Every structure is written in C-alpha cells, then in structure tokens.
Amino acid sequence: MGNFEIVWQDSGCEARRGMLKTAHGYVETPVFCPIGTTGAVKGIAPKQLKETGAVLVLANTYHLMLRPGIETVERLGGLHKFMSWNGPLLTDSGGYQVFSLSSLTRVDDDGVEFTSHVDGAKIYLNAEVAIRMQNRLGSDIIMCFDQCPPFPCDDRRLRQAVDRTVLWAQRAKQAHANPDQLLFGVVQGGIDLALRTRCASELVKLDFDGYAIGGLSVGEGHNNMIKTVSRTAALLPKHKVRYLMGVGTPADIIAAVAAGVDMFDCVLPTRNGRNASAFTENGPLRVRNNANINDPEPIQAACDCYCCKNFSRGTLRHFFNVGEMLGPILVSLHNLRFYQRLMARIRDAIERNEFADWAVEQLKNDY
Amino acid sequence: MGNFEIVWQDSGCEARRGMLKTAHGYVETPVFCPIGTTGAVKGIAPKQLKETGAVLVLANTYHLMLRPGIETVERLGGLHKFMSWNGPLLTDSGGYQVFSLSSLTRVDDDGVEFTSHVDGAKIYLNAEVAIRMQNRLGSDIIMCFDQCPPFPCDDRRLRQAVDRTVLWAQRAKQAHANPDQLLFGVVQGGIDLALRTRCASELVKLDFDGYAIGGLSVGEGHNNMIKTVSRTAALLPKHKVRYLMGVGTPADIIAAVAAGVDMFDCVLPTRNGRNASAFTENGPLRVRNNANINDPEPIQAACDCYCCKNFSRGTLRHFFNVGEMLGPILVSLHNLRFYQRLMARIRDAIERNEFADWAVEQLKNDY
Fold it and tell me: pLDDT by residue (tens digit) across A143-164?
C-alpha cells in the first residue's frame, strides 16, 4: 500500500471514497481544505476550526516566507506548533503567487524573483528553494513549484509554462529531503488538452505521492474547468490522490468529484463569510440585507454549526452593521461547516454508490 | 433572604464573599463582568467567553438603542437570546454616555438629549425611558439613570449631578415594572465625601436591590478613588451587593474588594487585548515587541487559558504583525481569563480569611 487507498469506487462515475495517510493523521477523501494563509484561518481559532469538521488545513509558503519568515516558524517549533494545528497540514509552493502577484514577479527558466508586497524586499523562489522551505516548515503535504499561466494565455507562453512546470517538478523531486512529507506534482496546461496530457504524462513518470491539477478557476469558467479536470484526472494514476487546487464553489466541487478528484482548497467559505455572504442550499444569503433586521431564524434552520445553533440572522446582520468582529467570524464558521457537511454528504453518496444521481440532483440547487 | 447573601466576611478588612441571585442564575462575588457593548464581547464567541470563567456580562443600553434598536432586540427574543448568553446579564442605563459622549448631549433636570454618534438622530433618555428600555431588554440587573460628572468638576455642577441622580433614582424606582430584574441605584458625588454621603443616604432610603458606586475612574487617580470607594461602601447596607462601575486595573479591584465592593466591570481586558497588551503578574506584556519574534513561550507559562495553552508569543506577535484577527481575539481571551482567575483568587483569599494580607502581597506586583 502507498499513502492513498481507495475505499470505494462509485460505479456510475469516476467519484471515489479514499483514505490519505499523512504523518499527522488520516484524511478521508473527498476532502475540503480550509485556507490558513499566514498560519491562521482568518479569525477562526484552531479549536473552532476542528469543530467545523476540518481535518486538513492549507498554509501559504510564500506568505510565511515574507512574514514571519521560515526561520522564525522553525524556531517556534515548526508549522504545526506555530499554527497550533496538530492534524494534517498542506503547504503550497508559492507558485500560485507567480500568477496572482504577477506585477511583482520576474520569471525565467530557473525560477522567480518576487518583490515582497509588504516591504519591497526581493525574494527568490525556484524548484529547490520552494522544496527546502516546505521541508523546513514541516507540513505533511508539500507541492512542487510550478508556473500557473493566466487565462487566456497565448500558445507560446502556455507551452513555456508547461515546460518549466515539468522541469521544476523534476528538480523538486530531486530536492525533496523529508520522507515524512508527501510531495505532489502539479499539472499545468490551461484548457489545452494536448498540453495537459503532455504535462501529466511527464509528471506521472516522476512517480509523485499525489497529483494536483493547477491553473484552473482563473477565469476559464465552470464548463471549461470541469472538461479540463475530467480529461486531466483520467491521465493520472488511479491509485494516487488527486487535488484540484483553489477550487471552488459547491457546484465546482461536486462536478470535479464526479470526474475523480479527491482534494480541494478554496478561500470562498472564509472570504464570503467575511463579506457577510452565507452559503445555503438555496443559494447565498446576504446577511447585511435589511430583510434580516428582525429575522429570528438562523442562517439555515437545519444547520448544526455553532453560528446557526446560537445566532439569528437579525443578530448577525447587527454585528456586521456595527463592525463587530463576531459577524465575519460566525458567518465564516457557518460557511466552513457548510463545506465540511457538503463533503460528508459527497462521501456518503459515493459509499451508497449513488453519487452520479445525487450530483445531478444537487446541481439543481442554486449553489 | 434577599437576592444577595454574604457567604463569608473577612475579619481583617471589609472584603466579603457573596452569592447574588439573578433570574438567569447565581453569581459568586466578588465578580468581574466583561463588557459586551453592542451585544458581543468584541471578537469573543459566548462559548469562548464562558470558558474564560465569565458568569455575568454587561451590555450597553445606549449603544443597543442606537443599533439595532430596542424593538429589534425584543423581536429577536430579548437580550439573552440576541447575544446568545443564557447566564446573568447586566445593562447600564446610558447615564455613563452623558459623560463619555458629553459633546453630543444636552442635559436638563428631566433627562438628556443625545445626538447619535452614528447618524445624528436625536435620542431622549430620562429616568423612566432608561428603565423602560432595560425592562424591554430583559437583562437580569438594570441600573438607574444617573448623571456622571466629569473630573475635576466645580461644586455647583457636582451638587446638581447628585441632586439629579437622586431625583432620577426615585423616578426609576417608581417606573421599574419587571420584578425579575434587580434594580440598582448609582451613588454619585465625585470625590466629595459630603456629597457621596448625601447621595448614598437618599438612595438607601429607596431600598434598591443593589448599589453601584459610579463616577470614578474618570481621572481622579487610584488613591482618590479607593478613598472614595472605601467611604462610600461604608455608607451602604451591608446585606446589599455593591458594584464599582467601570473599574479597573487589578490593583484597583483588589483595593476596592478590601473596601467591601462585590462587583466590577471594565473594558481593560478586551481593549488592551485588542491593542496587543497582555496582563501578567509581572506587569503588561507588549505582544508586538521585537523581543517576542522567536519566543516559543506562551504569554504566561502557568496560565490555563486557551491562548497560553496553544500559542507562543512568537505566533501572537506574528498575528498582530500581519493584521490577523486571531491576534486581538487570543490576547483578549488571555486577559479575560487573567481577570477571572484574579477574581477566583480573591474569593479564595477571602474564604481563607486572609484577604488583607494577600492583598498587600498582591499589590507589590506590577499590575
């Protein structure tokens, strides 16, 4: 056995129930991973996060490099202790920031020079540095440094990004020095299936612990994304875990699970929570709306989260209205729990061997 | 028996252990009451607040009148449900805002017209309105509307404030319409002992459920305050609970307990927490200090709070440095727990009949 076991393969689609083994515990898949950018899921104490059902948490290498610096995290006992999260942790490589902070970067075939968005300091990242930093952080799952091209992107640049991603993956594999950490390769290639195929086949030769599908949810739209995910997932080894990075809405996740994806991360539950937008099966609830002023109902009557068990829409609206921190915190908690419950229902539908039908029903919701 | 029972009277000073009965449960005194201005202790979920050991929470009538409005709180099920706090609640009367927002008020012998600091709306408060609003909020302990003079204050205005406070207390007593709520009178009079004496004796005639000492901690200094508290407490009936409003530092509280005070409220633990200042027995720890960057120790090694059990000074400093909400939240939690532990130690020292000596030892600390 490797680090990933398929517990059940749905017979009606590619969806599968799995179990991923990490140095800090097991992760049931399909799994949703909340984002703790600089060492915290914004406003949420680890104890509260655990109560939402979260098992795996992501932190951003690039942000941690800038502040407080990798050395400080090390001196404070490593990333788990630093964040007070004793369960599985995943770090990204910084590659995504090449894309999201592109005005502050200079890329060549070796790597990327960033200008810190905090103080203008120059920071250099390449395949080896990204691995070394993640080795030092001590996260359980680490990612190869990749180049995420924008959308749309001309053919030459897209090909160049794939070439670099493959080259950097080879170097990352070489550089990786901590056998307790799972190393994942990242498949790039935009929505170009030939490039995705080439990238996937090169990465598979390197035999990573898991495979991520990167470079999506950058403007290509749901249908392009799902088509690309579906074709790319089919190119990856069945018995390795598959991770769709930075995705997404409940509808995105359901469709990607049907295509055989096992792992997801996304800022939506917390970002939307901070912006007073609550996920419900009937579409988003805008907490600030005047309609909620005197509404004694929770966000969702059937929800078992701390927010819904304790606070009315009226109180939540008031908290946002007066700028009380509890507003963003409570709606974030609701949204995080909403996502974890969605994943539990996904796992359940797969185990019942009914995922394809269940997914069709779910996608009728206004997610 | 009334609503307050003295469990133990220290023989070396005026300090006493008591038990206050409210409609939402018992309160062991001396007690410290955190402040949930507009329905929340800033950033702290009620569950977390309970874990700090808090039993009694204060909310501000004036702030709730402005937003969301008393009618909205009623429609959302009353203040307990609104805040999701099923334990004892105390509301102030709005009287303190006559002082703290004095540039926005117009006071006469009947009451006060406020100009809302939010939207400029005119709001009228007098003895009857303040009681009616608190009756509608449904808090367990409500306060008479009083006039808190500034410090220093000329004799004529100080006398006028006492006259009004007495007059308004008589009207409040008449207006109070909910026997489930304890009504406290507020003794004013600055640091003028003759005026304090007159005010206290007039209020005692009205036989309130408890007596507050108001108008202190407004610039008169620790020694003036404690002298005034000590003299005023001696004028109040022994078997009624005594509440020193808006106080204070650990040293203030210890000295006031020695003078026979039973209840305290103050913004210090949360305000200082938000400003990265942590209470310790060795004086304040400034969390932002560079000295903490790589410090793996918690704020206090011996502290049993969630923050100290889980986070290093280094991580806390980082959270403040990157603007992560968890910084203010965690240090607020520590400070709230610090205050509750201080009160538990105070109650313990009284029960051991050693409070006077214990207090002298404690006051050597750099609180």
Answer: 999 999 999 999 999 999 999 9
